[in-house]
Structures are given as C-alpha cells and as structure tokens.
Sequence to fold (290 residues):
Amino acid sequence: MMSETLTVGAAQFGSRIGDLDANFEEHHRWVSQARGLDLLVFPELSLVGHYGAENLLDVTMKRHDPRLIALSRAAGDTILIVGFVEEGPAAQFYNAAGVYKNGKLIYIHRKINLPSYGKLIETKYYAQGRFVDTQEITEDWRLGLLICADLWNPALVHLAFLHGATLLVSPISSGVEAVGEAFDNPSGWTATMHFYSMMYGAPSIMVNRTGPEEDLNFWGGSRILDPFGHPLAIAGQNPELITAELDYGQVRRARALLPTVRDSNIGLVEREMNRLNDRLGVPDIIRDDD
Fold:
C-alpha cells in the first residue's frame, strides 16, 4: 500500500506587538521561503504578538479579513495556520488559529484553555473557545489543532484524537518566565510533545515565537516529531524555518504497535464524566448516602 506523505514547515519568529501591517509583511516573507510545502504553521497570535491584545480593538480581525485571504492566496496550494485575534459574532474576541488554503478559510480553532496564572492573563481579553474538532486536509491526514495551554489539559488532546486526528499541531507563545522560575518551560514542552506523539501514534508540530516581548523572553525551540515521538526537526532560539516530510505509513505502523486510540473506552469516559458532573463539588454533608 502506498502511503501518503505531507511536507510541513514551522516558521518561528518574533512578532511586533500590535503592528498588523509589519506582521503581515513578515508572514509574506516566510510564505515566500516556504514554496512547495503542503503545510506551514505560524506561532500563536503570530499576527499581533503575545501582548497584542493590550490594544484589543485595534488588532481584532474577522476570519475572512481581506489581508488573511491575500496571504493565503500568496501561498498558493500551501495550507497556512495563522494566529490572530478573531472578532466573532456579538463582539466576542478569541485567541484563534485560522487554517487557510487557496484564499479560503477551511477551519478555525478558538483557544479553550485560557491561562490566568504566572504572567499570563488571557482571560482578561479573550472569550473561551467551546469546541474540540478536527479537519481533514487530505484523505489520510486529519488535523488536530490546539493552541498552547490547550495541550496542558490532556482531555482536550484526547478528544482531538478521538475525533480522528492523525496530525497534532500546536502554535504556542511560551516565554521562559511565563509561569515562574521553578518551572522549566523548554523542558516541559519537549516532554509534552514527545508524550503526545508517542502515546497517540501521530506526528506533531509545535511552533513557538522568539526574542523578547515586554517582560517575557521567548525561547523558540519549535519542533516537528514523527509518530513515535522522535524529532525530525528542532529549531534554535532565533528566527528560523524548519521543515520535515511526514509519512502516513509510519502512523499506520505506530498505531498498529500501540493502539491508544483504538482502545479508548469512550462509553466508560462518558459515564465517569457524567458521574463527576453530578457529584464533583457537592459537599459530603448534603450527599445522599443511600
């Protein structure tokens, strides 16, 4: 059986805070370097910067903004995953990653797990995403797209794979100091991406930003892993485009050897979640012991 390959890239760089024009120019430069790729991924909030939401009303865009469509058209057949602040219906604002191809939006993910700890205050600006889903990008490859802290809720990743993901993509915005000196963000992300690829038998792409931005220093370290958790490409600390070729035949082999998705007991999980919803947070004094 012939297996389908996917040539992917991760463009790691630092955005200018709130400067949409300059950041769009930067995206076009990376797109021009990525000719021939099937998929190119940019960091979380790549069009506005990590702190772009401090000028929230000046940086929001609708998902079909002409500038986004023009960027996608410039990329031709390459699928782009771009980070921006989406203005949704009823003036709700989201930390979003849009998936574009040939000048059209084909999928969007709104960040679900909004952090409000350490130096991270996203709940001040963004509405919470409400769905975990996936998107078919070829016959074999189905995209599971989650943004940064979404991956620190393993239930969200599990849901993406239960929905059929064969490729995990995570645009992130990870500063060294984000959650305190005792927590090693680079090592944490290394372990996290290795675990998910190995556990679910799926390649993964993690794309971080680089350089200083206000009180945070972004360490880069973007990476592409195979479905056994082995690194195919790892970036350093400076702006860089990394690429790799993913082979669906390896996904088949990994999942035959370690069938995590196959053996997921959805009925049990649903039952236990319902039980938790009924009982979690209910004081013992008012529980019915019968």
User: Anything to note?
Assistant: The first strand starts at residue 5 and ends at 12.
